[in-house]
Design a protein that fits this description.
The protein is mainly α and 189 residues long. The protein has a single domain, classed as Fumarate Reductase Cytochrome B subunit (Up-down Bundle), CATH 1.20.950. Helix content is 63%, strand content 3%. It has four helices and two strands. A two-stranded antiparallel ribbon has the order 1-2. A hairpin with a 3-residue loop joins strand 1 and strand 2.
Length: 189
């Protein structure tokens, strides 16, 4: 497997970025749900700080992912995929990128307008040049509480599309972002 993408498959770097971001997003969703049901206090503060720290990593990985995508060829869609599915796949991908960036930025602005710097695993904090602002804090918090639903819906579309292509259309769409899976799950296709 090569580092760079080819016309038929994503390279190892794009695959690693994809799965690291996916893992980060899953961790963020889990931590978000976890802290939402917690009482205010030190444990909730710790979960929020971990959530914010992982979000910073996902943000950096997403920037690298977009730059890498623009600097590399994107593998062509599998043969026989209808035009509407190609359009839907592109829109779902870019919708995910936009929603994830919006979600992370909304979270960062929620913290900043609340008067706090962005924590990074208790090692250091990043102050944002944004004044504490109660109305702004509530707005960004509401956006942050809402956009995860869009992300979750787009993730479901993304996953269902990959599984549909793999098991129903029996093409290599899923294999291109994994290692070893071939049409319909058999190694020999």
């Amino acid at each position: 497997m090569t580092l760079r993408n080819s016309k038929t498959e994503f390279g190892s770097f794009a695959k690693w970025l994809h799965w690291l971001v996916a893992s980060g997003i899953c961790a963020l969703l889990w931590l978000g749900f976890r802290q939402a049901g917690m009482e205010s206090g030190p444990e909730r503060t710790d979960v929020r700080a971990l959530h914010a720290s992982i979000a910073l990593i996902v943000f950096v990985l997403m920037v690298v992912r977009i730059v890498w995508r623009m600097a590399n060829v994107v593998p062509a869609h599998a043969d026989g995929v209808p035009g509407w599915q190609k359009i839907a796949a592109r829109r779902a991908h870019w919708g995910l990128y936009i929603a994830v960036f919006l979600q992370i930025i909304a979270g960062q602005l929620t913290i900043a307008t609340g008067g706090d710097p962005l924590p990074f695993f208790g090692v250091f904090s990043i102050p944002l040049p944004i004044a504490e602002n109660r109305a702004g804090h509530e707005l960004w918090e509401e956006i942050h509480k809402t956009v995860w639903i869009v992300i979750l819906a787009l993730l479901v579309v993304h996953i269902v599309g990959a599984v549909y292509n793999h098991f129903v259309l029996r093409n290599d769409v899923l294999r291109r972002m994994t290692v070893g899976l071939r049409n319909g799950g058999s190694e020999n296709g």
